[in-house]
Amino acid sequence: MIHDVLLTCLSLSRKGISIRSFLASNVVEEFIHPCERKIFVDILNILGYLNEVVRFAKYFGGINPTDISDFREVQEYSSGYYLKNFAKGIESALEDYYNEIVRLEAHYEKKKTNSLIYIYNTLESHLPVILFLRKLITDARMQKLHGCGLLQNLHQQYDHGIVHMDQILAKIVKPVKLVFYSHLAHWMLLGMIDDKHTEFFISFRQTGENGVKDTSTRSQSSSSYLSSVAEEDIWQYEINMAQLPRFVSTVVAEKVLFVGQTVLVFKMDRNKQKTDTWTLRTHGTFCDDVSELWDGKEAEFSKMIEDLNDNDSIDVLRLESVINEIKKYVSQRLSDIAIIEDDLDRQMGLIKDFYLLGRGEFYLEFLRQLHGSSDNNSDTNARNFTRAFEIASNVLGIVDELENFTLSVQKTRINLEQSFEFGIWQNLHLKYQYKWPLNLLFSPITVERYNTVFRFLLIVRKLQHDLQLVWARHKWVAKTGSPVHVRIMNFRNHLTFFMDNLQYYIQVDVLESQYSLLMNKSTYLKKNLTYQYWA
């Protein structure tokens, strides 16, 4: 019977617990002492816990899950590579237990006098580990954990402070970490996401008329190393907050997203986008693929990410250090590449002039044309804005500078003409048509942020212009012999004083000072890059 118990310790099926039938037979009453009967029941209870763990590991981590055909709890678990590797980690954590059972079997073959208490003591020594593994599996089942969420749950288990459990947990976490670091390396170095189960914290979400599309098809198609990608697809990648582990902050996640999107920018088809200046000045250091960005450093960074898996646990500080180093290199590389473009300073000047209202005389003329095209504010519509923008550029003779800018009113479900006065101003959109490599700097998110600032500044300028019109009307009324009430004049003067100072503070103390710092940094980088080239 003792040999049957040992075989049960190695059994994988619920049928292996059939040894429980001995408890209901006369054999137990006649041949087993009542004390050993209690020991026998305790052994079976431990084997019951163990059987749950082993069956999970074999079903999800095994080569052929159909070997365990009666695993009815499969619908209660999620799916994916993280869960599969978690099961493999569970299996590796049971190696010490398997070795102990083999040792027990060899021991009982040599010894004539045998006792159940020896088996019980051995199993009891492994009971804390078995219960710990069972708890991890229960967490995965009850919370439907998958992907980075599963890795996060394993990471927080290191807080118990038991050294032996830390060693067991290290065996479980290692294969799960391997999937995580593989996703991280593929995204940051190659711009690839092979994630059909949506387990990584970077995902592709394309929005359209029907809302968010399924990400599985895109994940499979993006797994191939494409030579070029469409620009509109690059900015559809975003942080999947549901899969963002707690040991990765949103700031670090933004850096990971930025690096991967930069790689995709370099995989764009740039044959029709590169300028002649760019082609002439890139020389042999750059080429038309991702190696242009990494310049031979991708193997070094890949080794750095691979080495992260050597630690028993997830070293958060080291992980952030590696990500920061890659992000720093990419940022510096982008600076070097962008500075090569001759008219970068000019393009930045245009951004300041038209997004940040640096050309005040242009927008003053724009407001004049807009005011003259309608008798009242309710007549202001989308066509008036576009027409006033074009006329103002012609009046000031800056059509060439505005050839890459287009002003439009974005469509909205709200009837703008019947909403509050500045409703239509909140939907203005100034589009900037840039060329490679300037799209490295001006992503759609960045351009939208510029538009947010642009709309606010334009509304401030509109209020200033309206107050000036009020002042002109008051002057005209005063000449007709109908003086304006002094309180109205004081109120107008206070509003004018406030708006003038607000506009000056934003334009001079904030925007102009920050723009000067940016241009000084650009000049410094350009000088260094020129020196390195001639050296």
Question: What do these coordinates show?
Answer:
The protein is mainly alpha-helical. The chain has 20 helices and six strands. The strands form three sheets. It has a two-stranded antiparallel sheet with strand order 1-4. A two-stranded antiparallel sheet has the order 2-3. Strands 5-6 form a two-stranded antiparallel sheet. The longest helix has 49 residues. The protein is elongated. The C terminus is likely disordered.
Order of helices and strands: HHHHHHHHEEEHHEHHHHHHHHEEHH
| Net shape | elongated
List low-confidence stretches.
Answer: 12-19, 209-217, 219-226, 275-288, 530-535
In terms of DSSP E residues, the strand content is under 5%
Specify Rg, calculated over alpha carbons: 35 Å
The whole-number mean of residue pLDDT values reads 78
Percentage of helical residues?
55-70%
Side by side, the strands of the main sheet go 1-4
Instruction: Please tally the helical runs, counting DSSP H or I stretches of 4 or more residues.
Output: 20
Brief digest:
By secondary structure, the chain is mainly alpha-helical. The protein has helices at 2-9, 26-31, 34-61, 81-93, 95-110, 116-142, 148-155, 163-190, 215-222, 231-234, 250-266, 276-281, 291-294, 298-307, 316-340, 344-355, 360-372, 382-396, 444-479, 486-534; strands at residues 202-204, 207-208, 211-212, 237-239, 405-409, 428-432.
Question: What attributes characterize this protein structure?
Answer:
single chain, mainly alpha, two-stranded antiparallel sheet, two-stranded antiparallel ribbon, 535 residues, 4% strand, 6 strands
